[in-house]
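In response to the reviewer comment on reproducibility (Comment 2.3), we provide here a single inverse folding case reported in full, input and output, so that an independent group could reproduce the run without further information from us. The structure tokens appear first.
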């Protein structure tokens, strides 16, 4: 036993200041011994357990799926809960011991009467945009003891070698790296590929779509809050990547679903087209229901914590105050501020409706109002935003 930490200190995740929405018990996913450890489950809400169960069910049956919850509902945490279950994580000291090098594990087995769990080897690939790649790494490190490799940058060759040697459980990479090194990725037997922002796989002719379909992995799990962006053909492309053939060929989908629905949504649609479109949408929803799970904030509002807004007021620096005042003293701002005053020509009309409708450059008061609001906002954020390289010459 550690002389510095007790077992409770080593639990992951650990948020001492957060109220626990659930009891500290494990959540059973199947009769095969797969469960979400209590260390994670105590922080989950019911809909998040349902999401983890949904992903797990498809993985267990070697099928793909799409988790399409609204942004902000914790798709990342639901995936991490699933990974913790299938990788048999406990979120405790036991995970630390299991992650040790093999020679240390063998030594510990000889010196200790305690049983050290043997974990079957599985490796999962997570593909995400670069902007959120390291957020995934941070979340995995926060929520458990996962052996993670980031396949990006100069060390990706070494990390690929580690993965092939079975020294990694979760690999993180970007769409671009996967496209450039597809052959190397295909030399690894992935247990499943998890794709963040899967709506990027929306064009069947795009390189990114062809790359994702060429990756050798039967279980494809997509995460997206916006599966339908511009048209229904994009929805077909994403679903056909996750579950090939589910919605038929592209031509079949167009004839049976997208055309009837889109025709029924036109403002000139006949009653027959409206009815046909509704029937097609109901049929499509039925086909997708077992493979696509989406919850909106409105749907699960009873499970969400109350929104808490924190407003912090920051005073302008002396330099910002000087710049702000200089802007207020310009002729254009004076024109805007005095727009409602009686005109100097004694006509009885307001300045903005008489002799002062535009400035010296022919710009209207309405356009100046929005332009200078933007300028003042930039000054309040940082005066450097007004540099010539970042804004118009007039500003």
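Designed residues, in position order:
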């Amino acid at each position: 036993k550690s002389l510095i930490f007790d077992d409770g200190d080593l639990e992951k995740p650990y948020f001492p200041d957060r109220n626990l929405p659930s009891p500290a018990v494990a959540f059973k996913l199947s009769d095969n011994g797969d469960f979400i450890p209590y260390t994670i489950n105590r922080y989950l809400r019911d809909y998040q357990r349902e999401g983890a169960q949904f992903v797990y069910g498809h993985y267990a049956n070697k099928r793909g799926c799409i988790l399409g919850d609204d942004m902000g509902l914790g798709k990342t945490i639901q995936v991490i809960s699933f990974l913790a279950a299938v990788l048999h994580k406990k979120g405790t000291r036991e995970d630390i011991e299991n992650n040790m090098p093999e020679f240390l594990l063998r030594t510990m087995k000889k010196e200790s009467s305690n049983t050290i769990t043997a974990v079957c080897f599985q490796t999962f690939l997570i593909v995400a945009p670069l902007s959120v790649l390291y957020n995934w790494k941070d979340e995995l490190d926060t929520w458990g003891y996962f052996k993670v490799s980031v396949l990006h940058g100069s060390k990706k060759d070494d990390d690929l070698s580690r993965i092939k040697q079975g020294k990694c459980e979760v690999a993180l990479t970007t769409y671009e790296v996967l496209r450039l090194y597809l052959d190397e990725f295909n030399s690894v037997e992935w247990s499943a590929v998890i794709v963040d922002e899967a709506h990027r796989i929306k064009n069947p002719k795009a390189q990114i779509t062809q790359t994702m379909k060429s990756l050798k992995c039967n279980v494809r799990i997509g995460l997206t809050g916006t599966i339908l962006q511009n048209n229904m053909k994009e929805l077909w492309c994403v679903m056909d990547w996750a579950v090939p053939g589910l919605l038929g060929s592209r031509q079949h989908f167009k004839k049976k679903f997208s055309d009837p629905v889109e025709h029924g949504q036109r403002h000139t649609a006949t009653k027959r087209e409206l009815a046909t479109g509704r029937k097609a949408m109901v049929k499509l929803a039925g086909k997708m229901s077992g493979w696509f799970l989406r919850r909106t904030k409105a749907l699960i509002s009873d499970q969400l914590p109350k929104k808490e807004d924190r407003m912090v007021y920051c005073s302008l620096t002396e330099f910002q105050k000087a710049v702000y005042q200089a802007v207020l003293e310009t002729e254009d701002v004076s024109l805007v501020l005095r727009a409602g005053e009686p005109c100097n020509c004694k006509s009885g009309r307001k300045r903005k409706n008489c002799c002062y409708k535009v400035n010296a450059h022919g710009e209207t008061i309405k356009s100046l109002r929005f332009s200078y609001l933007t300028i003042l906002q930039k000054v309040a954020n940082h005066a450097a935003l007004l540099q010539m390289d970042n804004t118009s010459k007039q500003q």
